[in-house]
Amino acid sequence: MGHNFLTRALRHLHLKETWVIYFIFGIIMINYPFIHIFYTPSTIFGIPALFLYLFIGWLIAICVIYLFVKTINLEDEDKGEDH
User: Fold this and answer.
1) pTM for this model (two decimals)
2) Which of 9, 42, 53, 70 is the most exposed place for a label (fewest CB within 10 A)?
3) What is the chain's alpha carbon radius of gyration, rounded to the nearest angstrom?
4) DSSP string, 41-83
C-alpha cells in the first residue's frame, strides 16, 4: 500500500513548477532574515543553532532531489512501456 501511494504521489508531481518553487524556497531560506534568526549563541543538543539549521536544510534538499530523480525515473519507465 505504501509503495502505491508513493508511486501515485510522484506521478502527480509537476516537475518544472515544483523545481522552481523549491529553488525559490531554498534561496529564501539562506537569505538574511532566516540566517539572522539562527545566528545566535544558543545550542541545540550541543550543536550551534546555525549549523543545525544549515545541516537540516541540506538534508531536506537531498531528500527533495531524490524524489525528483525518482519521479523522472518513473516517467522514463512509463514512456518505455508505451513503445
Assistant:
1) 0.67
2) 42
3) 17
4) S-EETTEEHHHHHHHHHHHHHHHHHHHHHHHHHHHHHHHHHH-
